[in-house]
Design goal:
This protein is mostly helical. The chain is built from 5 helices and no strands. It has one domain.
Length: about 120
Amino acid sequence: MKRNKIVFYTSTGLLTALMLFSVSMYLFNHNEISQAFSGFGYPSYIIYPYAGAKLLGLFAIWNTNFKTIKEWAYAGFFFAFVLAFFAHYMIGDGEQTGALIALVLLIISYVFYKKK
């Protein structure tokens, strides 16, 4: 039981650090992120709402009161990471590793959330 909690909190903590780094890039390095989004063919006006959605998702994952919303947050992050992986892979910029790491951390976090 204790091992499951340690794995859950470690993986969720690392995922949170990765997401907070991503959000900080969205907020404080907007020009570079805007160019990256343009390279994907995405409009740059979705950067700030996407940063907000990531923060809300992190809040939902760490909050113990809203189990259904937590499930939705895990699902939303899953689709975001899978789509980010393939977006980076398809344009060939070599930046898909971050999305793959986030996906692995998310899966570990979810599995051990169910076990704890």
